[in-house]
Amino acid sequence: MPKRLGLVSNPLILYFRGVGALALQQVTDVSVRIAVRGMTLADQIARLASAPGFIYLTLLMHFTVMPLLVNRQAG
User: Taking the complete model, does pTM exceed 0.70, yes or no?
Assistant: First the structure.
């Protein structure tokens, strides 16, 4: 898919694309938790110290490197 769309396959650019997507996702996630659930930033950070929080962080790491993985498989 990346080749059909003419996306750059430079690994550094793909990595920063994943980091940018993660940053946007986290800003949205924190904003929604504050606005909808009434959680403070300290509550959200404390939640990451639990087992579900560790799983969430692991999935976020996978989300960040996904542009690299998808491009490698498509190449």
Answer: yes
Q: Is the residue at 8 inside a domain?
A: no
**Owning domain of residue 38:** 17-69
Instruction: For residue 12, tell me if it sits in a domain.
Output: no
Instruction: Give the chain's domain count.
Output: 1
One-letter amino acid at 5 equals: L
d(CA 55, CA 61): 10
Contact 30, 41 (CB under 8 A): yes
8-39: pLDDT as tens digits = 678 888 889 899 999 999 999 999 999 999 99
